[in-house]
Amino acid sequence: MKILRHPSAATERRLNAIARRSLSFRHKDTRDVSRIIAQVQKNGDQALIDYTRRFDAPGLKASQLAVSSEDIKQAARQVDRRFKRALNRAIRQIEGFHRQQFRKSWVDPARDGVLLGQLFRPVQSAGIYVPGGQGGMTPLVSSVLMGALPAKIAGVSRLVMVTPPTRSGQVNPHLLAAAHAVGIDAVYRVGSAWAIAALAYGTATIDPVDVIVGPGNLYVTLAKKLVAGTVGIDMVAGPSEILIIADHSADPAFAAADMLSQAEHDPLASAVLLTDSADVARGTSAALENQISRLPRGEIAAAALRDYGAIIQVADMDTAIDLANRIAPEHLELLTATPMDLVGGIRNAGAVFLGAHTPEPVGDYIAGPNHVLPTAGTARFSSALSVDNFIKKTSLIRYTAEALKKEAADIICLAEIEGLDAHANAVRMRLKP
Questions:
Q1: For a tag on the chain, would you pick the N or C end, based on fewer CB atoms within 10 A?
Q2: Longest dimension (CA), the chain
Q3: Residues in Cβ contact with 306 at an 8 Å cutoff, skipping those fewer than 6 apart
């Protein structure tokens, strides 16, 4: 890759191309997904079967939409010991992290005669979308864990999973084993936008849910955006991205490997290195060329690096931090000798990975924090999927007669300023002797 220097016109053009990637959708895609949602609302299971037969499993029957409990239990017995060990470690560590997010309801005697508080209550049901993964050949087990475990910890009572079936109408046993391990109540062989519509509006087989989470392709993402408001969603996520800040101590081979770990996802993925070391910049460029030639998904990674990748040499770490905050990356790696020294300057990032031995994939699978993260600059105002996505917060307010009298004049004043006389009258009525 060509090494850019900051500041320069070329660097600015490249940064703008990366930072201005938006989550906009073509009108045609919006029309297509809206039509799919309408068909599911109108025709229910029949629409699900029609779309599934057309795009995924030609021979699937309506009676096969739901995966039987015996199939799920059989899958849990079928997977090997090595997978079970990794799965159980991931579950323990993801659970441990997310339990720290759980909050209890509270009340506070805020002022004389006034009681205020909040009730924290879980939603009753949630749907986890799990992508098919190359026709079921690369099961995205981590998506099951990252979606289901925060919901379970929140106290969601009904948890369902939808995932596209293979061409033969099956679901990869590793996905079913993961669903069994985290306590998912039902699994359905249905994917894409029609699965999202079914979760939002319900069919004869699939009851509607309150919240939908999980990654997916453009149609899944757009469907989530269109049903948001009818149900809660985690976020409208775009292509994956990584930004690495590296100093002289960084191993260029590590930096290159970590850039490629995200570039291989999608031609629209972004991978950026910011470094104050000319040696690290040159070394990373050479390592990228060497490593990408050996990757099965090398063509995808090369396209991502060509369009949304960059190696930028900066004057110092302060400049690197400023540029990182401008881009607000999904994943931010600090490949520096003393990464904790930089953390205080980070304002915008989905997740921060500290030091040479914390590559982004540890966060994807096993570290504990959620890997469903804001993308396309939305880390400026949004956060990772968490227990809070499955919690409703209800305010509690109680006034005594004396407390109301004390504040009544101010309430009436504000109501009258807003022209809401009935509001003011609701207070006056209680002041009469």
A1: C
A2: 86
A3: none
Q: 15: which 2 tokens?
A: 């940064």
* Residue in 241, 264, 330, 360 annotated catalytic: 330
Residue pair 44/38 in contact (Cβ under 8 Å)? The answer is no
Are the CB atoms for 220 and 193 separated by under 8 Å? yes
From the number of C-beta atoms within 10 Å of its C-beta (0-12, 13-18, 19+), residue 294 rates as exposed
CA distances from 115 to 118, 195, 409, 430 (A): 10, 44, 19, 18
Instruction: Give the whole-angstrom CA distance, residue 192 versus residue 180.
Output: 22
Answer for the pair 292, 260: CB distance below 8 angstroms, yes or no.
yes
pTM over 0.85: yes
What is the predicted pLDDT for the residue at 433? 84
Pairing of strands 331-335, 351-354: parallel
Count the alpha carbons within 13 Å of 250 in the hemisphere toward its beta carbon: 34
Domains, the chain: 3-23+238-368 (3.40.50.1980), 27-233 (3.40.50.1980), 400-431 (no CATH)
Query: Tell me: the pLDDT tens digits for 390-417?
Result: 999 999 999 999 999 999 999 999 999 9
Q: Where are the alpha helices (DSSP H) in 228-377?
A: 252-263, 278-292, 298-308, 317-327, 340-343, 360-365
Over residues 201-211, the pLDDT tens digits come to 999 999 999 99
Does 241 participate in catalysis according to the annotation?
no
Amino acid at 48: L
Q: Residue with structure tokens 């309408």?
A: 38
Give bridge partners of residue 119 from the DSSP assignment: 394
- Annotation says 418 is catalytic: no
Query: Catalytic one among 98, 174, 331, 371?
Result: 331
Q: How far is CA 132 from the centre of its chain?
A: 17
- In angstroms, the Cα distances linking 8 to 5, 13, 16 are 6, 9, 12
